[in-house]
Fold each of these.
Amino acid sequence: MSCKERRHSRSLESRPRATVTSALALALLCGACTDASAPEARGVAAGGAFAAIPVVTQPARIEHMGIEIEAVGTTQANESVEVTSKASNTVTAIRFQEGEEVERGEVLVE
């Protein structure tokens, strides 16, 4: 790499740094130009008291936000059970619905 190429690559690398430095210097100059001793800048009214700032309030309430998320993916259960029969016969009735909670000892299939 020639000396000229090295000098050119260094100037390209230092451009973002120079831009940020210039922006910070400009911000400091603009901040120094404001008159912070003016009563309006400190929030002080003409009588020497602090000026009131208008505020809108509202009582808290509980509402349903109705947030729905649609996603495509795969789920995996935390737990699973294996249901086995004591006798091999034909199933005549299923006594539960999918997703329903059941109690221990409850008859699920006849």
Amino acid sequence: MRGFFQLLAASDVHGNRERMDRIIKYLNEESVDAGVFLGDVTEYKSFYEADKAFYPASLKAAKKPFLTTIGNHDTGNNDEIGSSFSNTKELYEAWIAPSIKFAGPGTTHNGEDCYYYTDFPKQGVRIIVLNQYDHNDRKADATHYLHRRNHEMYSQRQIDFYINALETLPEGYGVITCLHNSPGTMIPFNMGYSSEHTYGFMLPSYISESIIPFITDGFINGTKAGKNFEIPTLGSRGQLTADFDFTRRGVGEFICYLGGHYHNSMLSRVKDYPNQLMYNVDSAGCDATTLQYSHFQRDESEEHMDSFAHITIDRARKMVSIKKIGTTLDEYGAVRLETKFLYQRCR
């Protein structure tokens, strides 16, 4: 029965091997079908070699599918320290190649890009993993081209991949789209659970408009469209095209976006597309100075304090339940244990 799908969601471990191992331990021992890591395995360039070793070593213990998303720190593109990777291939070989084998038997991947999808036929769910730091010119440096490491960029190849992943969705499946950062400008949703700092946060992007939500909207409503999106910094080469026709398959079931990046547990919706919700999971482990508005306790000496999420998707009722594992206090001392929302009633 395609009733429930249980997912472990974690992000921003920032080199903390102990917490990463406990994430995998939870995956193996608790009632979850799969896990997803939403980016930022590492912290800074000086730790890359060690982090590239520990991450796949941790994943080897996984007994269930575990998907990996590229984060802005993982690209190595930093104005101060420079890039650790000279091209897309090196970025792929550092993070995706060692981890794609753990994504599960239902994974479709071309063996060279940092984006893919995994199907879960029993539950009727497709998880699409995107790479928000992907250059339009595959021959150019993919991580240190013209852009800051936390700015959104897609290749036309990846845009076409996302459209195809939605067009080829098996009948009766629902979709979860994973990316490290938000897909556009976001506004708060369910403020009784989310931080006030959810309000109005915006994805730094070199694309003129939110291309991923535009495509997702077409999928949800079963429409046809063709639109160009400008990338002003690239001049005449700066254009992406979203050309799709979802009329043949009809309306689609979009569950939500999942991400990390903000070091906070946040629920929000895309500003111009209120039927598209996103949950950003808290930082699973990082230095106290990097915590920002995290739900982590202020005392980072408490290594036993985890912070990730157990997400239950009830597809029959169109309901998502998010339960925090580990830290449950927000920056104001309020307890945030669990929240639920109906993903088909947010229009």
